[in-house]
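User: Please fill in residues for this 238-position structure.
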């Protein structure tokens, strides 16, 4: 089957994020007051339909936003201390120039014993420019959250290595030169173009198969994820 006859491959990272935020939402009792910090278009709001959902975003990127409860810097959320029972902090921290200030503010607005769901990229190209500052390893995440008072309850890959393969190949297919002239028309460039003609259809097939494989079961034995996720807790005695 050719590339043009196939449907667009699904994004396993996005599917796993929906699944993981849904699982986090299901773990919360009805009536839990939840803050979606950096909520964007609020695409996962339905996973918290049984909760008292509030949202905050600075709304400065040229994209579609949901109807934010608070339009503000996440380092200065206009609410009282200890307002929230839970926080969703998803795909946001890489966009913060001073993440420690925001973690301190989220700690402030959470009740003692409240939990926070985090997700964010380890491997991803620059996006939402110019508001894109960092990528976080698991060790960096543990350091930052514990430094700002949180207990690390859970820290793991959000998606599997086949999601990483899917994303790498899709970007490669989009960005590779299409002609030898783009590479200077050297003998090596001409030879490379011949090989790429054979590579592209195989890579496109791998994209489809790898994406479906990751959606069905995350492979985490080797490689690295596109995203990490974590559940952290504000200590009950805080």
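Assistant: Residues filled in for all 238 positions:
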């Amino acid at each position: 089957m050719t590339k043009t006859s196939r449907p667009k491959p699904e994004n396993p990272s996005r599917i796993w994020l929906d699944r993981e935020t849904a699982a986090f939402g299901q773990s919360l009792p009805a009536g839990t007051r939840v803050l979606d910090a950096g909520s964007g278009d609020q695409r996962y709001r339905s996973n918290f339909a049984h909760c008292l959902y509030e949202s905050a975003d600075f709304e400065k990127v040229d994209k579609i936003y949901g109807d934010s409860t608070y339009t503000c810097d996440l380092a200065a959320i206009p609410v009282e201390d200890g307002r929230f029972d839970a926080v969703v902090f998803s795909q946001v921290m890489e966009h913060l120039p001073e993440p420690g200030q925001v973690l301190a503010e989220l700690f402030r607005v959470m009740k003692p014993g409240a939990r926070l769901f985090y997700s964010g990229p380890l491997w991803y190209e620059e996006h939402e420019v110019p508001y894109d500052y960092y990528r976080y390893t698991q060790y960096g995440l543990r350091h930052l959250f514990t430094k700002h008072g949180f207990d690390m309850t859970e820290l793991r890959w959000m998606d599997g290595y086949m999601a990483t393969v899917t994303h790498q190949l899709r970007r490669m297919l989009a960005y590779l030169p299409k002609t030898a002239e783009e590479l200077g028309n050297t003998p090596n460039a001409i030879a490379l173009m011949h090989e790429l003609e054979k590579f592209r259809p195989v890579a496109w097939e791998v994209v489809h198969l790898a994406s479906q494989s990751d959606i069905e079961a995350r492979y985490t034995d080797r490689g690295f994820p596109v995203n990490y996720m974590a559940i952290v807790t504000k200590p009950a005695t805080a």
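For context: The radius of gyration is 21 Å.
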